[in-house]
UniProtKB/TrEMBL annotation:
It catalyses: [protein]-C-terminal S-[(2E,6E)-farnesyl]-L-cysteine + S-adenosyl-L-methionine = [protein]-C-terminal S-[(2E,6E)-farnesyl]-L-cysteine methyl ester + S-adenosyl-L-homocysteine. Residues 1-53 are annotated as: Disordered. The keyword S-adenosyl-L-methionine applies. GO terms for cellular component: endoplasmic reticulum membrane. This is Protein-S-isoprenylcysteine O-methyltransferase. One of its GO terms (biological process) is methylation. Residues 1-22 have a biased composition (Low complexity). The keyword RNA-binding does not apply. Its main location: endoplasmic reticulum. Residues 36-53 have a biased composition (Basic and acidic residues). The chain crosses the membrane at residues 90-109, 116-134, 154-174, 181-199, 243-271. It comes from Cladosporium halotolerans. It is a multi-pass membrane protein.
Length: 304
């Protein structure tokens, strides 16, 4: 659970991810001309993308007489691979829909294995919204990896695997013990924390916009601003706050005991260390402005 790869604080800098560069130069083929279509003074349109530069090759098409876009980052091996984005979206949607259907059926017939499907559904929605929110409000840094499915590190994967194993083992090996500590109250609290945490995290990402990044920034970008509006007026690290309580909510919902304790301890330690490191950089970036902001806000995570 040590690397949930949650976002940095309100002032996380914009990623400096590489973009495909356009060039005004004729190719060796006399029938093909490459030219840049980027105009930073205009908003994004289909023909003049503002943030992502395209090379346009004059390729004949039966459907249009306009040049077709060419961007290597969109190819299967690219950072914005459309095939990877499509595949991840499909399988996340499949996992979410299947888990909701099976979870509802097993819960209706009072089979405790519904907890496994509920956990998978929560994870599927979380990872999809990580990409969707980034793609909607932070276009310059969106990548196929923005789903965070394969970039959160081994500890993150181990934590969720252990949670699923505890669900399965407690369901079939210790059903009475599991039922004793998984009741309507814990389920309701867990569901509330999941919804609240997910909504707060997505709202934090949307509010920060291009100032948001999934990794802490050690160098201040030119357009890096300190965001203090919206949810950031109440918590200076709303995405960390949200993920902390969201993760705890998942374990309360499914009735895990061992993983609940482990999640609390490991996540608290992770965010404690990360926030300390990050705030040292933020003080360097914004000086007294950030120090004043830090004094009037909280993290929302106990004792941090």
């Amino acid at each position: 659970m040590a690397r949930p790869s949650t976002s940095s604080s309100a002032a996380s800098g914009q990623s400096s991810g590489q973009q495909a560069n356009g060039h005004l130069a004729p190719s060796s083929d006399s029938n093909t001309v490459r030219r840049s279509t980027q105009d930073s003074s205009k908003e994004d349109t289909d023909e003049t993308p503002d943030r992502i530069q395209y090379d346009y090759a004059d390729v004949q098409s039966p459907f249009t007489s306009k040049p077709l876009p060419y961007d290597p980052t969109l190819l299967p091996d690219g950072k914005r691979s459309l095939s990877s984005i499509g595949a991840q979206s499909f399988w996340l949607g499949f996992a979410l829909a299947t888990s909701l259907v099976l979870g509802a059926q097993t819960a209706y017939f009072d089979y405790p294995i519904w907890r496994l499907f509920a956990f998978v559904a929560s994870l599927s929605l979380f990872h999809f919204l990580e990409y969707w929110t980034t793609a909607t409000y932070n276009v310059p840094v969106v990548r196929a990896s923005s789903f965070l499915l394969f970039t959160n590190g081994t500890a993150y994967n181990v934590a969720h695997t252990c949670a699923m194993l505890e669900i399965v083992v407690s369901t079939f090996a210790f059903p009475r013990f599991q039922a004793k500590y998984c009741n309507t109250i814990t389920i309701s609290i867990g569901l509330f924390l999941i919804i609240f945490g997910q909504a707060t995290r997505s709202l934090a990402m949307a509010t920060a916009g291009t100032n948001f990044n999934h990794t802490p920034q050690m160098v201040k970008k030119v357009d890096h601003e300190l965001v203090t509006r919206g949810v950031y007026a109440y918590s200076r690290h709303p995405s960390y706050f949200a993920f902390f309580w969201w993760a705890i909510g998942t374990q309360l919902l499914v009735g895990n005991k061992l993983c609940l304790i482990a999640y609390v301890v490991v996540l608290w330690k992770f965010f404690h260390d990360r926030i300390q490191r990050e705030e040292r950089s933020l003080v360097q970036f914004f000086g007294s402005e950030y120090e004043a902001y830090r004094k009037r806000t909280r993290t929302g995570i106990p004792f941090i």
